[in-house]
Here is the input.
Amino acid sequence: MHVTGRLYSFFMAIQDIYPTALRLLGRPVLVVGGGPVAARRAKGLLDAGAKVTVVAPVASAELRGLADAGLLAWEPREYRTSDLDGVWFVQTATGVAAVDTQVAADAEAQRLWCVNASDHEASAAWTPAVAVVDDIKIAINAGGDPRRAMALRDAVATALESGDLPLRRHRKPGTVTGTGTVALVGGGPGDTGLITVRGRRLLGQADVVVADRLGPRELLNELAPDVRIIEVGKTPGHHPVPQLEINRILVEEALAGNHVVRLKGGDPYVLGRGGEEAEFCRQHGVEVEVVSGVTSAISVPAAAGIPMTHRGLAKGFSVVTGHEELSEVPARPDHTVVLLMGVAQLRDSAAALAGAGLALDTPVGIVENGYLPEQRVTIGTLGTIADQAEAVGVANPAVIVIGDVVRVSPFAPQHFKTADYSTITPNRPRVATI
Here is the structure.
């Protein structure tokens, strides 16, 4: 019977709460108490726009500072029942149970909602654990357990901020002027875990997604059914949607009041024409946010264990898209060259670098579908790589890395690893012990 009574009490503590939100803007409220809890509650009420009066013989430095700034009124005395006249809401936080109980009883008699900090079970109202993400306010009660409520609040806020929970509006605010926004989001090399937290969050808020062929395509499957996806993907030599048309789509959709995400592979500002898109939007009065992504130029080689720089091997690198630019790139094995979208021109690019003086035995690595299950690594030399690529059918998306840093890759053949370049004694190769 005793156990049943405890279960019934717990059940009632949860079921007799009616969650709601008070709009206290401009309304007078009372805080009784002057310590840290009273200061926290007073600040929360001020954030809600309430006209706060604090009654306490002694107030903390924080409360005195708020009073001195004219943000609230402080009455330096003991509580009186008449303090409740004309207020809409009451918070007790004296730390003295008898005083808090008296305030709560007086409020009950006047049919005022009162939070009793000394006795949550007897309190007419509870203050939830609160967090704000954008224009969403999260408020959690957890059966009178504040630490549990705070832990849950933090978990929900984190999930909202990371995009794991949807932030997208379904009811447009009445103050919207009609113009939406555009976000140029770098989706990274393709793995859904490599998009930034900000990028995923914006994707979850989008009304329209203008999507490339590359990038984290699986995230599109997680969008709400009414989110429109406009495909504008390009392949080498085939651009079904010209860049000017992509620019027009972004502006047109934003001017219609939509939140538009331009989801691109890698980083929108690394050989991604993001600068052109941002400029076009701004010229037409559309607000643009650029969210950098993990560029495939660096991340895809890293997936195969190939760094851009390495002590004793390379101190710098260049990223190009074709053999035409190679005449201005340092033709040295200690300067890493990265080719994006370069599979079709690989033979010409290798010949251009060789013609500029780069040795034919310079290591070359090709990484296809970086970070994806079908990732494949092909490693050879400047003199052999074109034939190797043709033999195994290398295809885009692929990143080509040329330089001595390829020797560091665990996929490199054993004879590439005749020297182990130490990070303890930089720039001085030592004999391998394997």
